[in-house]
Amino acid sequence: MSDLARVWDTPKAVCPVGSIGRNYAPFDHERMHESLAVARRSEPVFYSPDIDYWVVTRYDDVFAILRDPDRFSAANANTPISPVPQEALDLLKEGGYALEGIQVNCDPPRHTRIRNSAFQLLNMKQFGYLEDDIRRLVIDSLDRMKGKSRVNLMEEFTYELPAKVIFLILGIPEDEAAQVKKWATNRLLLSFSRPTHQEQMDAARNLLKFWHYCVGLVARRIDSPQNDFASNMLRLRNGDDTVLTVNEINSVAFGLLFAGHETTTTQATNTINALLTERDSWEAICADPSLIPNAVEEGLRMYGAVVNWRRRTRCDVEISGVRIPAGSNILMSFMSANRDEKYFDRPDHFDLRRANGRKHLTFGNGIHVCLGAPLARLEVRIMLEELSKRYPDARLVGDRKVEYVPAFAFRVPKSLWVDLEA
């Protein structure tokens, strides 16, 4: 069964009297910080009736859940927060949509088998080989901005670039980036937002195109292997379904083409926005580029692309004194954990010199920690290095407030308007 059609039998929640969960706004990125700060102090685990999830806010609790796959399943990680209409599900089924849970929404032993193969090809050493190519792509993007004084930096710089990096890994032509980005946005809309019926139908049609694009890519590599990710996964498979099936490779390619760039686009945009908002920080990295790796980590901590992630209890559990029955939905607030006062001094302050900034949980932890974390760090670092070198006088456009897509799991800006010259 597709994860888009998954229906869970969720136990009825007993909501504590006076719970802040009634006021929790999971889709409003402007309001979340204040309510989560109150929760960490007074009600670190609360029930949100709006989404039917128990929200976990303290660092220690979130970390413990991430490290405990025996009690907390990842099977619901991509399940749509709003039911997908049967009409859309039928369209996908009849069209041959066959995405399988293979990484973020998969549990051991299957998760272990697939991750062991993927890790041989997606690791820090392999990503390091891409540094020169990434810098070339970054410089090319900046070159295309020459002569422009005011730009939507997300549209001009951070939007397509991470997709082009993934294309290097998959052996896809750069000129297909715009189309793949649109398809990936449809997947995000279906699983992590509250689209209208028409939006769900449109997203389903485009999702089907996205799936067949990935299936076609793998099929071409079966017929004509190259030195790229899909070809190398097929070599690891070596015709043995007990290692990997072809459809699992289709699904891994699909996942890489979705998660491998959407979050990096968002993370780069959020970090640049934070640095330009904190003007002293922007000027500091321009004067001393050795601070840029710290800026990357602080951006991940304070303005991580992934703000919430999900688990499902396999058994009755107790978290910070709250008893939660088996089969319950758990929302781990990375946003809150990353600002837990127990671990981060002045947590709402963007500190380029924070000694433990890398302690954040934006990439998760445990067996499901993000395989692409080293690549995302590398890309954002290079983008900051080249952007700050070329445009040290860049400033935010004061009357263009950043707005966010109403997606409860991701902090996705719609635009970032910048004046490149003083």
Can you describe this structure?
The chain has 422 residues and is α+β, with helices and mostly antiparallel strands. The protein has 16 helices and 10 strands. Helices cover 47% and strands 8% of the residues. The protein has a 5-stranded mixed sheet with strand order 1-2-8-5-3. It is globular and about 55 Å long. The mean pLDDT is 91. Strand 1 and strand 2 (53-56) form a beta hairpin.
Index terms:
422 residues; alpha+beta; three-stranded antiparallel sheet; 16 helices; globular
Fourth-level CATH superfamily: Cytochrome P450
Proportion in helices: 40-55%
Structural class: alpha+beta
- CATH topological fold name: Cytochrome p450
Q: How would you write the strand order of the largest sheet?
A: 1-2-8-5-3
Summarize the SSE layout with pairings.
Elements: H1 32-42, E1 45-48, E2 53-56, H2 59-66, E3 72-73, H3 86-94, H4 110-119, H5 124-128, H6 131-143, E4 150-152, H7 153-158, H8 161-170, H9 177-192, H10 197-223, H11 229-237, H12 246-277, H13 279-287, H14 292-302, E5 308-313, E6 317-319, E7 322-324, E8 329-333, H15 334-337, H16 373-390, E9 395-396, E10 417-419
Parallel strand pairs: 2-8
Antiparallel strand pairs: 1-2, 3-5, 4-10, 5-8, 6-7, 9-10
Helix pairs in contact: 3-10, 6-8, 6-16, 8-9, 8-12, 9-10, 9-12, 10-12, 11-12, 12-14, 12-16, 14-16
